[in-house]
Specification:
single chain; 336 residues; mainly alpha; MetI-like fold; 2 domains; 15 helices
C-alpha cells in the first residue's frame, strides 16, 4: 500500500508541475498587456515601466516562472493588478464559499442520483428507467445559467419562497469563522437563525449545480449495475434463492462502485468549473465570482491564482479517487 501511495504522490507532483507551466505560459502569451489595461490609456510610459518592474514582468519568462513557482510553494500567489491585494488572501476568503456550494451540490446529486440509478438498473426498459434516462439527458444538456434564471424567476421573484441571490442578507451577521463556510460555521457555533438563512440562500444555486452530477451518477450507476448483473456470480446468487434486495446491495451495487466513485471524483473538478456561471447568476461570492471579475479586468495574477487553485483541487481529488480505487479493489494496487 505504501508503494502504491508513493507512486500516486509522484504522479500528483509532476501533474501539478505541468499544470503550473501550462497556466503560466497561457497568461504570458496573451496579446493583451495587463499592466497597460490596469493603468488605463492615460498612463505614461514611465508608469507602465515602473509597474512592469514591480511585478517582475520585465524579466525573462523562465526567471518569472521560477520566481512565481517558488513564491507559490510558500503560499504567495502575488498581488492583484487592480487594488494590489494579495491573491492568496482573496482566494482564502472566496474559496470556502465555493467549496460549500460544490459539496452541497455533490451531496444532492449523489443522494438523488444513486437511488434513481439503482431503480433503473433493477427494472430496466421500464417506465422508471425511461424517466431516469430522460433526467440524465436533461441534466447534462440544460445550461446551468438558464436554469438558474428560471428558478430565480419562479421561486424568488414570483413565489418569494427563497432569496434571489447572495450568501446572506446584508442585515445578517456572519457566524464566527471556523471553516469559513457560512452554513457549517453557523451550525457548529449554534447560530441557528444564521444557519437557516444561509441554507435558504444555498438551495437554488446548489440545486442548479447538482443537476449534472445527479444525471451522471444516475446514468453511471445504472450502466455499471447492469454490467455487473450479467456476471456469473450474480446469477449463481439468484439461483440460490437469495432475497433480491440482498443480491442487489451486496453483490451488484458493491461491485459496481468503482465507476461511481470515478464519476464523483471527476464531478468535483467539473463543479468547480461550473460555479463560474452559477455564482455569477446567484451573486454567490465564491472563487468563480472572483475569477469572472478578474477575467473582465484582465487581472492576470488573480486569473492565474484562481485557475491554479481549481487545478490543484481537481488534481488532489483525482489522487484521492486513485487511492480509493486501491482501497475498494486491492487488485488495482497490485496492477498499478
Amino acid at each position: 500500500m505504501l508503494e502504491f501511495l508513493a507512486r500516486r504522490i509522484t504522479r500528483l507532483v509532476f501533474s501539478l508541475l505541468g499544470l503550473t507551466i501550462i497556466l503560466f505560459a497561457l497568461t504570458r502569451l496573451t496579446p493583451v498587456d495587463p499592466v497597460r489595461f490596469a493603468l488605463g490609456p492615460q498612463a505614461t510610459a514611465a508608469q507602465v515601466a515602473a509597474m512592469r518592474q514591480q511585478y517582475g514582468l520585465d524579466r525573462p519568462l523562465v526567471v518569472q516562472y521560477l520566481s512565481y513557482l517558488g513564491n507559490a510553494l510558500h503560499g504567495d500567489l502575488g498581488l492583484t493588478l487592480q487594488g494590489q491585494r494579495s491573491v492568496s488572501a482573496d482566494l482564502a476568503n472566496y474559496l470556502p464559499n465555493t467549496l460549500e456550494l460544490v459539496f452541497a451540490a455533490l451531496i444532492l446529486g449523489f443522494v438523488a442520483g444513486l437511488p434513481l440509478g439503482i431503480i433503473a438498473a433493477v427494472r430496466p426498459r421500464g417506465a422508471v428507467d425511461a424517466v431516469v434516462q430522460l433526467i440524465s439527458t436533461l441534466g447534462v444538456a440544460i445550461p446551468s445559467f438558464w436554469l438558474g434564471v428560471i428558478l430565480q424567476l419562479v421561486f424568488a421573484v414570483n413565489l418569494r419562497w427563497l432569496p434571489l441571490a447572495g450568501v446572506l442578507e446584508p442585515s445578517d451577521t456572519p457566524p464566527p469563522a471556523i471553516t469559513h463556510m457560512v452554513t457549517l460555521d453557523a451550525l457548529l457555533t449554534g447560530h441557528w437563525a444564521t444557519a437557516a438563512a444561509s441554507l435558504q440562500h444555498l438551495i437554488l444555486p446548489a440545486v442548479v449545480l447538482s443537476l449534472q452530477p445527479l444525471a451522471m451518477v444516475a446514468a453511471m450507476t445504472r450502466t455499471s449495475m447492469l454490467e455487473v448483473t450479467r456476471l456469473e456470480y450474480v446469477r449463481v446468487a439468484r439461483a440460490k434463492g437469495l432475497p433480491a434486495r440482498h443480491v442487489v446491495l451486496r453483490y451488484v451495487l458493491r461491485n459496481a462502485w468503482l465507476p461511481i466513485v470515478s464519476i464523483l471524483g471527476l464531478n468535483v473538478g467539473w463543479l468547480l468549473g461550473g460555479t463560474f456561471l452559477v455564482e455569477t447568476v446567484f451573486g454567490w461570492t465564491g472563487i468563480g465570482y472572483y475569477g469572472i471579475n478578474a477575467s473582465m479586468s484582465f487581472d492576470f495574477p488573480a486569473i492565474l491564482g484562481t485557475t491554479l487553485v481549481i487545478g490543484v483541487v481537481f488534481a488532489l481529488t483525482n489522487a484521492v479517487v486513485d487511492v480509493l480505487y486501491g482501497v475498494i479493489d486491492p487488485r488495482i494496487r497490485q496492477a498499478a
